Amino acid sequence: MKNDEAVIAGVAVDNTVYRFDQIFSYRVPDSLKDTVREGKRVLVPFGRGNRLRQGMVMCVSSLKENTQDITNAESDKLKNISSVLDKEILFTDEMLKTVNFIHDRYYCTYYDAVRAMLPAGINYKIKTLYSAIPITEESRDNFNSLDEYTKEIYSYLQNGKKSVEKEVILNVYSKAEPSLQKLSAYGFVKKEDDAFRKTKDATIKMVALCDNADLSTYTLTPKQEKVVDLLKSVGEASLKEICYYTGYTSAVTDTLVKKGIAEYFLDEVMRTPYEHNKYGRDNKEIILNTQQQKSFNFLYEKYKEDKPNASLLYGVTGSGKTSVFMKLIEKCFQDGRGTILMVPEIALTPQLIKIFVSRFGDNIAVFHSGLSIGERLDEYKRVKSGEAKIVLGTRSAVFAPLDDIGLIVLDEEQEASYKSQQTPRYHARDVAKFRCSCYNGLLLLSSATPSIESYYMAQKGLYSLVTLSNRYGNSKLPKVSVVDMNEEIMSGNTSCYSSYLKELLADNLLQNKQSIILLNRRGYNTFLSCRSCGQIVTCPSCSISMTYHSANNRLMCHYCGHSVPYTDECPDCHNQTLRLCGAGTQKAEQELVDMFPDARVLRMDADATMSKSSYERKLTAFANGEYDILIGTQMVAKGLNFPNVTLVGVLNADQMLYSDDYRSFERAFSLLTQVVGRSGRGEHEGIAVIQTTTPESHVISLASIQDYDKFYNGEIGIRKTMLYPPFSDICLVGFSGINEGITIKCSVEFQKRLIAVIKEKFSSLPIRLLGPSKAAVYKISNKYRYKTIIKCRNTRDFRSAVTTVLKEFSAKKEFKNISITVDTNPQSFN
User: What's the pLDDT at 408?
Assistant: First the structure.
């Protein structure tokens, strides 16, 4: 486009109200025409007050080319972009398409989608700054007319050497807002908005000789000559290196800089979450057995096709699925294309990092929430620059800024953690499928217990299906015993462990073998009950029981974080008759220590893995044989490979079976199958024990023999009869508010209005509505929660109907304090 043409930019603006959100048009001033580009962030004035907000440039066009039918007269009225925040393009065309994909499907603003795709450290915060303007003779009368409080604030600003943030002023003068407005109106202070990045780039101080320095004109000391000689030989070096290799302090270099012989500059360094060198290098060829090789050959052909593909790699636990997709990743890397490998738990990344870094070195980047903000930012930049072609991480890794994606792998694809619980409520599988379609890449789903939906898609031919039916090498599936805990209780055993499991644990310790215990409930006791009045101690802000934690001797709510010191006095009847009931990982750990005082016991749950790198340290210690027994929640159940583990015990399997949604059996079967599969993965045969009070459960029986096909055949029949996914989509509309009556009213009226809109505009849409009804946990942090469940087809028309009603209700003053969320195909109805 010609430089004198008016240029219009479409910008997704941060912090907009959902009902008003759109791509907003801004005029690009002449001074920014060379720098404003699609995929860069900008600062733009927004709203009546023209407060600066950050935004993402989604499109740029000349006035003649603009797609929003803006006339010359209208373009003159457009606000100008204030500044450009990024030196380089941050989002490629494909990533901008992904922004639109998320916005169109997940009921969020455009910038909500942008924010989800960025690492936390790269985001900017807009701050309002004030600075004092000197008072002139002409303005002195106006200043003298101000109140003393306002004058004091002016003096505070005047004494400052630089602009002061509004938040800082309010911390000193809590009622400063009106005074700042007065000072600004009279012109006594300058008010400006500016963007600050929360996390700075990591830099190192470097030294180099000045290009124009004539050394013959300077008289140098011996120390200075030695530094100059070092810089001549290496070109440039960090100040730290110069001090180390010469043995001199930085004062010598400072003098050279003052003389104009050398110069300082900052060089960016990357904060990496792991040491590339500590794992060594493994260049051995990946050896596959006949079944694995056949699977790899099939998948490689799919990868090479010049079109997008999706495949399901279904294999029993220990069948070597990782080796198959690792060889596929190697081929993709050799082709110069990008790969994303996602795992559901942070706990799985340390083992995979060791495997992949030893093979691919610094071509690996890691994305997950356990990294520091600085590490996340730098790993993102390494991928963006092309330095790393393979990304390993949890759900957020799906947004890795790779230029040419050849392969995306979702390991343990059935896991609920791939579904975001915050806006935008996307599923990583759906985003991965979209990104693969943009690059003609292969999406590979891998699991021993695929989701019912994915296996159905494979059965119907919408995904290609690859099966590994046998364990790799000589290892066999473990022998599984189901123990009826009713009989244990009747015989007087009230501990967490059955007599049979105790014997096996003792035998394993004698043989120097390791054991894993799963109890999917953290804390010491899971609830407290009063023997006098029968009441359960619940959180005052949530409709959930308090959990006793022995580590701090407190009762804690796992939803809002409320905690109180433990006491045996009932808060209802005030009798000292409270008793601790149920068992969590802390109690199960204590019983192990009491039974086996010499055993080295390691606990892994959310309470024990709070610190950075705690997952890696604990799992590495267990893998190195520093512990005999690993006990924990579901994070110890999936994907981990410990050849010396020959015993797995599952405590209280019943709690997995019963929840208020249709996925409860599927989740229970998957978790039981996965944890049982941790046993016997080496050369020694494994044993697994499942403790339950319902041994007749078909889910437990099928999980014990790892018969996924039989489980699937039964489950898919129920889904079809009840019209649950994959035979429909589920849309969960949630309502949350402090006033229960208004919350109920909002949910009822929303449902009525949605029915009316569908009848009026989309009469052919098939839907079934259930509710509104209380959520399973119907109060959290003093907010009441209700839900409407809609069985539907997630089409553009359906989303349009829901969006219409959402925007209408967000404008209703009566419901301004009610939070409404929409979640497509949620993982639970909680």
Answer: 96
pLDDT in tens, 295-344: 999 999 999 998 999 999 998 887 888 889 999 999 999 999 999 999 88
What was the pLDDT predicted at 407? 96
Burial of residue 565 (CB within 10 Å: 0-12, 13-18, 19+) is exposed
CA pair distance 618, 516, nearest whole angstrom: 13
pLDDT digits (tens, 9 = 90+) for 197-212: 665 666 678 888 888 7
What whole-number distance in Å separates Cα of residue 474 and Cα of residue 476?
6
pLDDT grade for 744, boundaries at 50, 70 and 90: very high
Cβ within 8 Å of residue 822, ≥6 positions away: 107, 425, 731, 732, 733, 734, 802, 806
Q: Give the residue carrying structure tokens 């807009």.
A: 126
Average pLDDT for 647-651: 89
DSSP 658: -
The pTM of the full predicted model, rounded to 2 decimals, is 0.81
| CA dist., res. 338 & res. 466, Å (int) | 23
Q: Locate 463 and state its tokens.
A: 């995904």
The interaxial angle of helices 585-595 and 499-510, nearest 10 deg, is 60
Phi, psi of 777 (to 5 degrees): -105, 95
Long-range own/partner contacts, residues 697-703 (CB < 8 A, 24 or more apart):
697/657, 699/657, 699/665, 699/668, 699/669, 699/672, 700/482, 700/653, 700/657, 700/668, 700/672, 701/482, 702/669, 703/668, 703/669, 703/672, 703/673, 703/676
* DSSP tag of 535: P
Per-position b or e across 427-451, b if 16+ CB within 10 A of its CB: bbbbbbbbbbbbbebbbbbbbbbbb
Distance CA 368, CA 366 (A): 7
How far is residue 815's CA from residue 809's CA, in Å, rounded to a whole number? 7
Cis-peptide into 726, omega within 30 deg: yes
Taking every pair of C-alpha atoms in the chain, what is the biggest distance, in angstroms? Answer: 98
Residue 432 binned pLDDT confidence (cut-offs 50, 70, 90): very high
Q: Dump the DSSP string for 437-504.
A: HHHT-EEEEEESS--HHHHHHHHTTSSEEEEE-S-STT--PPEEEEEEHHHHHHTT--SSS-HHHHHH
User: Can you tell me the mean pLDDT for 78-94?
Assistant: 91
Is the model more confident about 126 or about 781?
781
Residue 363, both tokens: 């071509």
With the CA atoms of 755, 759, 761 and 767 taken in that order, what torsion angle do they form, in degrees rounded to the nearest 10?
Answer: 60
Q: What is the pLDDT of residue 771?
A: 83
Q: Give the Cα separation of 282 and 65 in Å (integer).
A: 54
> Which two structure tokens, joined as six digits, stand for 362?
């610094």
Which tokens go with 475? Answer: 């290892």
Residue 647 carries which DSSP code? E
- The amino acid at 240: K
Full strand arrangement of the beta sheet holding 547-549 = 547-549, 554-556, 563-565
Hunting for tokens 């919408």 — which residue is that? Answer: 462
Give the CA-trace dihedral at 255, 256, 258, 264, to 10 degrees: -110
Residue-wise pLDDT tens digits, 758-810: 999 988 888 999 889 998 888 888 999 999 999 999 999 999 999 999 999 98
Helix ranges restricted to H, 307-372? 321-334, 349-360
The single residue listed with the structure tokens 């699925």 is 321
604 CB contacts (<8 Å, ≥6 apart)? 347, 615, 618, 619, 630, 631, 632, 633, 635, 636
Mean confidence (pLDDT) of the chain: 86
Residue closest to 505 by CA, chosen among 601, 586, 639: 601
Distance CA 821, CA 485 (A): 41
Q: How far is residue 608's CA from residue 348's CA, in Å, rounded to a whole number? A: 16
